[in-house]
Design a protein that fits this description.
The protein has 246 residues and is of the alpha+beta class. It has four helices and ten strands, in the order H-H-E-E-E-H-H-E-E-E-E-E-E-E.
């Protein structure tokens, strides 16, 4: 990979994270439990997805505003050189579509800061618009679903659901989601992009996790590992913390 291609790869990886950050889901009033007994037998995947969709609509109507902190880090190892960077960001969200960011600190590669971290923030700001949310939401309009089973989770068990995009769109993904059996909110996403955003990206895996804050499920962590076609691996990590709901 020459120096002209290196920024293109980073922009492509920034686009991938946009697909991983799904809307947080509204949670029910039941307290979490630590066994898998909450998984109700007999629910079809259509019923699970319908309940998930209803809770997402409730979230949009109920969560008015929040603030939080993000810690971004990216480590690239490979040709033409190793690079590292980090950034601390404060996030401000106001329903329905306003999201803004304040960069608190940054370190390391300026190229990664400008071509990855700031591109991520720009994409997320655009994603807050209602039409973009509709086109990327976890709904039957955008995905097909298959029930794989269930498993225990820290919040009472979840349904394992395979998701397959209905179209090759770089903002959609294929893989597995875990839907909480009490709140019908997404607990985790393990996936790859529906469409490779760049020739220079060989493979990308996304692992996204949520946590329950009050009565809402909000992002907790993200790890995106990208293999570059000419050799090299980039690992992007995001930690979410210090939420304040308003």
């Amino acid at each position: 990979m020459n120096r002209q291609l290196y920024p293109s790869f980073l922009v492509g990886m920034a686009v991938l994270l946009f697909a991983a950050v799904a809307l947080p889901s509204h949670a029910a009033d039941a307290a979490p439990i630590s066994t898998s007994s909450a998984v109700a037998p007999g629910l079809s995947v259509e019923e699970i997805v319908a309940r998930l969709d209803r809770h997402n609509e409730q979230r949009a109507a109920t969560l008015r505003a929040y603030e939080g902190k993000r810690s971004y880090s990216l480590s690239y190892r490979g040709f033409p050189s190793n690079r590292d960077a980090g950034m601390e960001v404060l996030v401000h969200f106001e329903s329905p579509e306003h999201k803004s960011f304040d960069v608190v600190s940054d370190s390391g590669s300026k190229l990664i800061q400008s071509k990855v971290f700031l591109k991520l923030l720009e994409s997320e700001r655009e994603a807050a618009h209602a039409e973009n949310q509709r086109q990327t939401a976890l709904t039957p309009d955008n995905y097909t679903f298959a029930l794989l089973g269930s498993r225990p989770s820290p919040y009472g068990g979840c349904y394992r659901v395979a998701v397959e995009p209905r179209r090759d769109n770089k903002f959609l993904y294929r893989g597995e989601i875990c839907v909480n059996a009490i709140d019908f909110a997404v607990e985790s996403i393990d996936a790859e992009p529906a469409k490779n955003p760049s020739f220079w990206i060989k493979k990308t895996r996304i692992a996204h996790r949520y946590e329950k804050i009050g009565q809402f499920w909000l992002p907790a962590s993200n790890q995106t590992v990208t293999s570059v076609r000419l050799g090299g691996t980039a690992t992007l990590r995001i930690l979410y913390s210090e939420y304040e709901l308003r």
